[in-house]
Write a structure and sequence with these properties.
By secondary structure, the chain is of the alpha/beta class. 42% of the residues lie in helices and 19% in strands. It has a single domain, classed as DsrEFH-like (Hypothetical Protein Ychn, Chain: A). It is built from six helices and five strands, in the order E-H-E-H-H-E-H-H-E-H-E.
Length: 120
């Protein structure tokens, strides 16, 4: 199964921001599923390493553990361009995650290649 996790919540709600990353890193990877993560809306602020390292929800691992696990396991991370740029992100911010910019048309085409899209 191929699963796309669509994250829209940022540091303002650390538990909700962590959930899609947790399910991808500790669910899909462990289950042997192919997955990818899209950071959009407020979640796009997690592309900033300093912001991501400070996000720690309740009852879920901190983002500082989840995002590196995605990187190590080569899970693609996509960042909605307009959302992230509006929050001050630059090309340099993508480097630590090996992330890729994503436009709305690219997202629409991408969805077709996944069995499930999980929005959180």
């Amino acid at each position: 199964m191929k699963v796309l996790y669509f994250a829209t919540t940022g540091a303002g709600d650390p538990t909700k921001a962590s959930i899609p990353l947790h399910i991808a890193a500790n669910g899909s990877i462990e289950a042997g599923q192919e997955c990818a993560v899209v950071l959009a809306g407020d979640a796009s602020e997690l592309v900033a390493e300093q912001t991501a390292m400070g996000v720690e929800g309740v009852g879920v691992p901190p983002v500082r553990e989840l995002l590196p696990k995605l990187v190590v396991n080569r899970v693609p991370v996509y960042v909605r361009t307009g959302c992230a740029v509006a929050r001050g992100a630059t090309d340099d911010d993508l480097t630590w995650l090996g992330a890729t910019w994503l436009t709305p048309p690219e997202f629409a085409r991408m969805v077709e290649s996944f069995d499930r899209v999980v929005g959180v």
